[in-house]
Design a protein that fits this description.
The complex is a heterodimer of chains A (302) and B (227). Chain A has twelve helices and no strands. Chain A has 302 residues and is an all-alpha fold. In chain A, helix 2 crosses helix 9, helix 5 packs antiparallel against helix 8 and helix 9 packs across helix 10. The N and C termini of chain A lie far apart (43 Å). The mean pLDDT of chain A is 90. Chain B is α/β, with parallel strands linked by helices and 227 residues long. Chain B folds into two domains: 38 residues, no CATH class; 162 residues, Rossmann fold (3-Layer(aba) Sandwich), CATH 3.40.50.12280. In chain B, the strands form two sheets. In chain B, strands 4-3-5-6-7 form a five-stranded parallel β-sheet, with helices on both faces. Chain B has a two-stranded antiparallel sheet with strand order 1-2. In chain B, 35% of the residues are buried. The chains are: A mainly alpha (302), B alpha/beta (227). At the A-B interface, helix 2 of A face helix 3 and strand 4 of B.
Chain lengths: 302, 227
């Protein structure tokens, strides 16, 4: 009994670190984008202020139960990935609740939040929300295909579905990383990561000047605060998932921070030099080269 | 039904947009039901003033609110041309916590940029009412103060604060982006001092504002409070 409480407290500490790192990383990326546009950009503490402001708005409007639950499901998806993801390899405290089949569970949680959001946004009654979520789900489904193929390829390669074991197999130096041992799966996954992080060219779903910002059009005050909290959390845990699967995991927090930063930076790097795809363009893009690479990666290990 | 109410009903019907009229709709499963958009799609509950409670906490929150101003991208008059330079490299308002939001639900600042035609006033009111408390109005240009060069126009309003509670006026025709930035700084000072309670003023003096608005908007065809 005592053990589980201690573990829970360590997990909460991990959550605190990951959340704050997510907010800081988001601000840093926005500053990088601003510098590319010859601006100074937001102060690094802006995300915290935005969150305080959103949570402290004096009024908020509900459009029914599902509207309430949409952001909660989204946060549930983000927290679900966090809970089952080992953050630091070999650390007793920051392995969270990872277990034998966590890879499958995490893939499921990625979709869980999107579906909750779809139900909530359509309850808002705003036609733009519905269009946005339709586009979002359409794109996300095609993003998941190469990613899932890459995950199947890795599972076949290491013969396990446990992230901890996959990280363990990559220890002992650069040459043991999946990046080197299975470059095709890495390529397919890194291309689908561009869609997962939804920076340009795949940011039509949340772009402010398309159908106003898509799914969260009607969300405001604390609802939007939850969505933003989840956004910060999700950026880190997704990056940490890729770090664990392809780049050898992390053995301490500094390595964790550097690697998650670089994984996120890859999508921003592509984003700042790319124009925006329309939704049918991005769907067909994911179903061409990334899908082909993904299938090839699976065939090689069957 | 007395003649008077009948007249009002007829007048209301005359201005009611086609999509806002009562009608019978057949659902996808073949069931017919009546839709009254004014009742079903809008809420005409009065706004309620929510006064700050704890002074210390409120000071902290006001500081956060002042440093995180989300501006509704709503171009009303010619003054809107001053806003793009504000966000691009030359003036870069992001440095001061000023960000644009595309939807009124998420914004806290409404910029009335220049003259306001009666037709636009209607949209500005709707946008303002959809914003969440606390919310601020920044009026840009002489037109919002006394009508400016449109003072005798048949179709523009002269003084904005009859219709919406204005926090800060930026005078000029047109004010440069520097003036707008200084207006934002004034707004921040007001918020931090706890004096920017426009949303509560609007709720407290709701009847006065509505009377003024209805005096100028002849074809009033929406609920009184349409959040």
């Amino acid at each position: 009994m005592n053990d589980i409480i201690v573990k829970l407290l360590w997990t909460l500490l991990g959550l605190f670190i990951v959340l704050n790192w997510g907010l800081l990383m988001g601000a840093t990326m926005r500053k990088i984008v601003a510098r590319v546009a010859h601006r100074y950009g937001i102060p690094f503490y802006q995300p915290w202020l935005d969150l305080i402001k959103l949570y402290s708005n004096r009024s908020s409007i509900s459009h029914g139960v599902m509207f309430y639950l949409g952001p909660v499901f989204r946060l549930g998806g983000g927290l679900g990935i966090f809970l089952f993801l080992p953050l630091i390899y070999g650390s007793e405290h920051f392995s969270n609740f990872s277990w034998a089949g966590d890879l499958i569970l995490i893939l499921y949680f990625q979709f869980f939040g999107m579906l909750g959001m779809a139900l909530g946004a359509s309850d808002g009654g705003h036609p733009n929300s519905v269009i946005g979520i339709t586009r979002g789900l359409g794109q996300f489904t095609t993003v998941e295909v190469p990613l899932t193929l890459a995950v199947i390829s890795i599972a076949l390669q290491y013969n396990t579905l446990s992230i901890s074991e996959i990280v363990a197999a990559q220890q002992g130096g650069f040459q043991n990383w999946t990046l080197v041992t299975n470059p095709l799966a890495t390529a397919a996954a890194m291309l689908s990561l561009l869609g997962l992080f939804r920076e340009a060219p795949f940011n039509l779903v949340k772009a402010p000047n398309e159908v106003p910002i898509g799914p969260p059009t009607e969300y405001h005050s604390a609802f939007l605060g939850i969505l933003r909290t989840n956004g910060a959390l999700l950026h880190v845990v997704e990056a940490a998932l890729f770090m664990n699967l392809f780049f050898g995991g992390a053995t301490h927090w500094v390595e964790f921070i550097v690697k998650t930063f670089l994984v996120y930076f890859w999508s921003v790097f592509v984003g700042v030099v790319s124009p925006r795809f329309r939704i049918e363009q991005s769907v067909t893009w994911f179903l061409k080269i990334p899908l082909a690479i993904g299938i090839l990666a699976v065939i090689l290990y069957i | 039904m007395s003649d008077n109410t009948k007249n009002i009903e007829e007048k209301k019907d005359k201005f009611l947009a086609e999509e806002n009229k009562k009608r019978i709709v057949t659902g996808p499963d073949g069931v017919q039901f009546e839709v009254d958009p004014l009742q079903d799609y809008f809420c005409d509950k009065r706004p309620v003033a929510k006064d700050p409670k704890n002074k210390v906490i409120e000071n902290f929150l006001n500081w956060a609110r002042a440093e995180s101003l989300w501006v509704l991208g709503f171009g009303t008059g010619c003054g809107n041309i001053e806003i793009p330079p504000l966000l691009t490299p030359r003036f870069d308002a992001f440095r001061y916590g000023i960000q644009m939001r595309p939807t009124p639900r998420q914004s806290s600042v409404l910029i009335i940029s220049g003259y306001l035609a009666v037709k636009t006033l209607k949209r500005a009111i709707r946008s303002y009412e959809q914003m969440q408390n606390p919310k601020y109005v920044l009026a840009l240009g002489s037109c919002t103060i006394n009508g400016g060069m449109y003072y005798d126009s048949y179709n523009t309003i002269n003084r904005l604060d009859y219709y919406l509670p204005v926090d800060v006026y930026v005078a000029g025709c047109m004010p440069r982006p520097e003036a707008l930035l200084s207006g934002f700084n004034k707004l921040k000072e007001r918020i931090k001092a706890g004096r920017a309670e426009g949303a509560n003023d609007y709720a407290n003096k709701f009847d006065w504002y509505k009377a003024n608005q209805k005096k100028i908007i002849k074809d009033w065809n929406m609920p009184d409070y349409n959040w």
